[in-house]
């Protein structure tokens, strides 16, 4: 869909993503296609393709484009998967996942954000996305298991409930650490035993808090 931001979007993909080592062609194509400016407040549309996160409603953020690309690439998607996202936020990352997987389940704890994201995704015809309001640290058992799960908020630990909802071979991408800095982890489930995991560190990051039963307290 051509729009007045297409040039900025292409520049973002070249300068911020390709130049920093993002190689998955499907991720690059999705980020070149999706109108990120529609997911932020109108007053911030001109900054939507900047190399930074931006504020959204309720003191939350839309993540930096590079972080969206890095996490999307780490999910290792081919197109036929069911995936779970924790932290719908603006819905931008959800739209990227909707391009990369067959079916996306996304959980957001703040209802106004979930509702706004739903409206934008509907307007863009992303009908392969289901959004639920609730505590994502518990996962979405009825719809699992998932080939990949992405958590877009910082967690003090890896929620076991999410590992349990991965298929064997499934990947969990999650920032884990303290409230001011985290390490982005990819955990791959190797067998039926949920403790049998391959653990990879993908770099440092800083996310808003994952608040919930297996995350931070809401205080
Ligand atoms: N991926 C989003 C985007 O593209 O706009 C950015 C997400 S923002 C960094 C993190 C989101 O996680 C916030 O909207 C926050 O409300 C949500 N969140 C925090 N704890 C949660 C939980 N336990 N369950 C679901 N959502 C949660």
Q: How does this structure look, described?
A:
The structure is a single chain. The chain has 219 residues and is an alpha/beta fold. The chain has a domain at 64-205: Rossmann fold, CATH 3.40.50. The protein is 26% helix and 25% strand. The chain has 6 helices and 9 strands. The chain has helices at residues 6-17, 25-33, 65-74, 92-100, 111-123, 160-164, and strands spanning 54-55, 61-62, 82-86, 103-108, 129-133, 146-151, 166-177, 182-189, 197-205. The strands form 2 sheets. A 7-stranded mixed sheet has the order 5-4-3-6-7-8-9. Strands 1-2 form a two-stranded antiparallel ribbon. A hairpin with a 4-residue loop joins strand 7 (166-177) and strand 8. Helix 1 packs antiparallel against helix 2 (25-33). The mean pLDDT is 97. The chain binds S-adenosylmethionine (SAM). S-adenosylmethionine (SAM) is lined by residues 60-63, 86-87, 89-90, 92-93, 107-110, 113, 135-137, 152-153, 207-208, 210-212, 215.
In short:
With about 220 residues, the chain is of the alpha/beta class. It is about 25% helix and about 25% strand. It has helices spanning about 5-15, 25-35, 65-75, 90-100, 110-125, 160-165; strands at about 55, 60, 80-85, 105-110, 130-135, 145-150, 165-175, 180-190, 195-205.
């Amino acid at each position: 869909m051509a729009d007045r931001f297409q040039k900025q979007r292409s520049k973002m993909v070249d300068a911020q993503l390709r130049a920093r080592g993002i190689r998955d062609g499907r991720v690059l194509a999705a980020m070149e296609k999706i109108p990120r400016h529609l997911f932020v407040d109108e007053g911030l549309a001109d900054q939507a393709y900047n190399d930074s996160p931006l504020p959204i409603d309720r003191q939350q953020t839309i993540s930096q484009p590079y972080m969206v690309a890095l996490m999307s690439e780490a999910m290792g998607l081919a197109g036929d998967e069911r995936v779970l996202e924790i932290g719908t936020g603006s819905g931008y990352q959800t739209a990227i996942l909707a391009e990369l997987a067959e079916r996306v389940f996304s959980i957001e704890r703040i209802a106004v954000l979930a509702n706004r994201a739903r409206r934008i995704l509907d307007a863009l015809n992303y009908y392969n996305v289901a959004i639920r309001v609730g505590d994502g640290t518990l996962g979405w058992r009825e719809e699992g298991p998932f080939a990949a799960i992405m958590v877009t908020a910082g967690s003090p630990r890896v929620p076991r409930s999410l590992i349990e909802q991965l298929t064997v071979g499934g990947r969990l991408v999650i920032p884990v650490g303290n409230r001011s800095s985290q390490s982005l982890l990819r955990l791959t489930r190797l067998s039926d035993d949920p403790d049998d995991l391959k653990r990879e560190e993908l770099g440092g990051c800083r996310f808003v808090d994952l608040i919930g039963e297996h995350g931070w307290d809401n205080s």
